Amino acid sequence: MTSPILTPRDWASHPPYLSPGYRSSISRSPSLPLIPLKENLRNRRVPVYGADDLGTLDNDLTRNAAKNGEPLGERIIVTGRVLDEGGRPVRNTLVEVWQANAAGRYVHKADQHDAPLDPNFLGAGRCLTDNEGRYRFMTIKPGAYPWGNHPNAWRPNHIHFSLFGEYFGSRLVTQMYFPGDPLLDLDPIYQGIPEHARHRLVSRFSIDTTQENYALGYEFDIVLRGPDQTPTE
Ligand SMILES: [Fe+2]
């Protein structure tokens, strides 16, 4: 038997599968006991992407879908490091993001929110981490949107993140939030995360990351395992 590479997840830092306040979790959560991933699958390395597989604008959401101008809204830079359970950088790993536009609307047929689409904004991007595990996106601050979970329900501003890390067993899908958002206190998805771990999903405003006369900066580190692991959404 090979020795485990990944330590077990700290499930006390993640939201329960069934969180009735988050209505969709009632139908999405498993009703039968889980089948643990076989160790040889969990610890299998994910495919490695090369820089050649990505387009030069893939991490610039303000330009990667522009048709006839710039997207509307507040330009922001979102950056941070991807770290493993020992705090070591996870290098050359794919980070994917998707988000609503500044008006709170996704480019998706299921999104019929009465807010305008932006012809110059798709809301999807990806990049590889560098040697320090750092990723960086230029984007537009996403708007809040209504989601029908309960009367007058609005999602806080957020950006969806997907990561694999180095192994299938370190896959993480989560959401990044913004500091000081009053909707966080009312959001069943955010509130479904154990209280001690919630702050790990809130980005930090950074004047050092902020680009003068151009874009505000936010820092958001992602830890794939260990005592400081980033919760799933
Ligand atoms: Fe969303």
UniProtKB/TrEMBL annotation:
Superkingdom of source: Bacteria
A GO MF label: protocatechuate 3,4-dioxygenase activity
The entry's keywords: Dioxygenase, Oxidoreductase
Pfam families for the chain: Dioxygenase_C, PCDO_beta_N
Any one of the GO BP annotations: 3,4-dihydroxybenzoate catabolic process
Keyword Oxidoreductase attributed: yes
Intradiol ring-cleavage dioxygenases domain location: 78-106
Family to which the UniProt record says this protein belongs: Belongs to the intradiol ring-cleavage dioxygenase family.
Name of the molecule in the record: Protocatechuate 3,4-dioxygenase subunit beta
